[in-house]
Amino acid sequence: MPGNQAIQPASGQTVTLNDPATSVTAEPYFLYYQSAGKSRTVSVSVPAGYTVGYTLCYNNTGCHTNPPVMSNTVTLPDNSFCGSSAGFADLWWHYYPPPVPNCKNLTGPSSLYVGDTGTFTATYENGTATIDQRGLAIYREGQCEPNTSAYWNRVNGGVGVQSFNWVPSSAGTYDVDCRAWDSGVSECRGRCYGISPYYAYQCAGTGGGATTTRKVTVLSPVSAWWQVKDSDLLAFGDLRSSVPTSLYFDLVGDVILGTVGFPGVPVYKNSTNLTSTNVSTKKWLVNTDISSKAFNFNSSYFINAIPSGATVNNISSSSIPGSYFASGGTAYNDYYWYVYDGNNNGGFNLTITSAASLGSRKVILIVKNAGLNIQGSINLTKGSGFFLAVTTGNIVVTPNVGGGASANLEGIYVADDKFFSGTEGAKSDPRLWVRGTVASYGGIVLERDLGSASNSTTPAELFEYAPDLELLFPIELANRLTNWREVAP
Asked: For the chain, how long is the longest CA-to-CA vector?
């Protein structure tokens, strides 16, 4: 090669002397003959697409900067030129590769999670050829052909920028390189070049092959998980959350009047994957038999507890904006009672189509013979606002409700059937933050998944205890097991 570089496939070619018949592939090579009065022929093999020339010096090595004679064969005279037993002919072969296209400026992530999409982009150009195809190859670290690639793609295209998407299926370290073709003439690669029988040339990149390769670390996926804050929790069956290492399931409460709060006490009946290490800073975790018979605060309880003197604001449409609850209506003892009956509305569920900013209003929503769909955030003024939603069916939260640095839903949510947190299904959901209480007698279905990168630090659902909502719970709905009264002596 020009510059005396030992680069395949040129450095692996065979040099042949015709008399005595000798062939060598070593680098550097040595050939010997002694008989005078006879010329010899030295030839060299040439890889497909290459051209070759030679420079020949007698008894010195200073001629190799001269322009080569373009041929793969040279005739040497008899050995009289040696002049002594120490004489020699120094014969160099100069290989010139065919025109080669180029790729460069390869960019992309340096780390990925299994199942996530990594996008790699490179610039493709003609180089010394005419590019007509662009490609990208990904192999396990240190591997090349004929090993099986983790990703390999080749598309038609000339000069320009090309992006490729890879979704890894296994954890590990991988080598990525861009590749370019002038079909039928040559191929360049960022790595894995010059390996028999897959001879290809090193892409020039932006100089010396730079920016044509990169390493990617693929990490094991991180499952979605959920978290509570300052909250006790009762699980009548199993209690499970895939809490990442170094994080806690139950967070301490906010600092109030200079005092740091405490985490809650999670209680479960059957089994849990939580441990004293990840449950909370206090390590509180209780396994005990819990009887559900004492807890009968389902929709029937709340429907039957509506005060006889209350003015009920009946909802006549199955689809209402959140602002519907923010103004209007008639209050009873400072609480606004709203009732929706699916039997009076074609059996349709009630859908709240937009955000509700209740401020200091106190709203009680009873949904009978239907479920409740929530498509917007529900917020109130902490300490003065109140919201209670009770349904005989499901409560379904759409995945657009979420994200941000504050609670998305505030209030108490009770469902006879299930509570669904909602998901877009693409592992790109926003976190759902509920400040208040969720009670669902058919089960709570936690559907959200933020994707491994966010899952590693952030819960998909966060439930925060709200003591102010307990203090504002309407007395009409309270379960009074004992009545206290003053009796005259």
From this structure: 147
Q: What six digits make up the tokens of 247?
A: 């994080």
Statement to judge: residues 323 and 408 lie in one domain: yes
Query: Which three-class secondary structure state does DSSP give residue 303?
Result: helix
Domain extent for 132: 102-219
Residues 337 and 399 in one domain: yes
Reduced 3-state DSSP string for 456-481: CCCCCEEEECCHHHHHCCCHHHCCCC
- Cα separation of 41 and 402, whole Å? 81
Q: Which pLDDT score is estimated for 385?
A: 98
CA distance 204 to 334: 77
Burial 114-153 (b: 16+ CB within 10 A, else e): bebebebebbbbbbebebbbbbbbbbeeeebeeeebbbeb
Say if CB 391 and CB 371 are below 8 A apart.
Answer: yes
Give 119-166 pLDDT, tens digit per residue: 999 999 999 999 999 999 999 999 998 899 999 999 999 999 999 999
The pLDDT of residue 480 is 55
DSSP for 398-439 reads: -TTS--SSS-SEEEEEEESS-EE----SSS-PPPEEEEEEEE
